[in-house]
Specification:
Elements: E1 5-8, E2 12-17, H1 28-36, E3 39-44, H2 60-73, E4 80-84, H3 86-97, E5 104-108, H4 121-129, H5 139-148, H6 153-160, E6 163-166, E7 169-172, H7 176-181, H8 183-186, E8 199-204, H9 212-221, E9 225-230, H10 237-240, H11 242-253
Parallel strand pairs: 2-3, 2-4, 4-5, 5-8, 8-9
Antiparallel strand pairs: 1-3, 6-7
Helix pairs in contact: 2-3, 5-6
Length: about 250
């Protein structure tokens, strides 16, 4: 299968997993910074995203199996996982299956709980029901259309990374129709008893993905964890406040 990934640096390995509708490009600056600090950094396009292969359905179990196979095929020794949003749930599934294999976990603005579909309805309707992207002549038209639909500019920036031109037509590069159709699986809870490896949860101060009450249940299942709130940041913590984000990551790694 065609599994695309980027690799930088040498040393102890960190595998970075992006979120729903994301691509490895979104983590280039973080990956290159960590590589400059003496780490071997791997950033895959997750299945159904970017340049990687597509599947017919979505489940965290299958995604976890695929990513664990990737780590083993690369012969990684005690890798560290750094994972954002949906990628964080995949990371939990990976560790759930083989906890002793991983050294540590860094989760970025995600909890193991189920999330509500209603939070994504405007985005889903625009992606799945109302929009034929071949109608757009260029990326500027696409961007303007989605902003006028009320989609947050952060999500529009994410979507733009999922587009490409083929035969003079704008097309999805990622498996967007399936990812939108299977969103209930993407929002599903990851069920496990507990994860004991050292864990850092970085949450956005202005994000509702990890609420105050979520921190209590998180500590119950991650007893060896630290939770940090990043000021002046939403769900894309690494974009909104990169210096604070990287400082916390490096302190945890050291």
């Amino acid at each position: 299968m065609d599994f695309f990934f980027r690799e930088y640096g040498t040393g102890e390995t960190i595998v970075i997993l992006h979120g729903w509708l994301g691509v490895s490009d979104h983590w280039l600056s973080v990956g290159k910074f960590l590589a400059s600090q003496g780490y071997n950094v791997l950033i895959p396009d997750l299945p159904n995203h970017g340049k990687s292969f597509h599947t017919e359905k979505f489940s965290f179990k299958e995604m976890g199996e695929i990513l664990n196979c990737f780590c083993q095929a690369k012969d990684l020794k005690k890798p560290i996982l750094l994972a954002h949003s949906m990628g964080g749930k995949i990371a939990m599934e990976m560790i759930k299956e083989n906890q002793d294999y991983f050294k540590a976990l860094i989760l970025v603005d995600i909890h193991f709980r189920r999330y509500e579909r209603s939070d994504f309805n405007i985005l889903l309707n625009s992606l799945l029901i109302q929009t034929n992207i071949s109608q757009f002549k260029n990326l500027s038209e696409f961007k303007t259309y989605f902003l006028e639909k009320g989609i947050d500019k952060e999500w529009v920036a994410v979507l733009l990374k999922n587009l490409e031109y083929k035969k003079n037509t704008l097309q999805w590069k990622s498996n967007i129709p399936m990812l939108a159709q299977e969103v209930d699986e993407v929002l599903a809870e990851v069920d496990f008893k507990r994860i004991d490896i050292p864990t850092l949860l970085i949450r956005g101060e202005n994000s509702n993905y990890v609420k105050e009450e979520d921190c209590i249940s998180f500590k119950e299942k991650f007893p060896n964890s630290k939770i940090v709130s990043v000021p002046n940041s939403g769900h894309w913590v690494q974009v909104d406040n990169p210096s604070f984000f990287l400082k916390e990551v490096m302190e945890f790694l050291k």
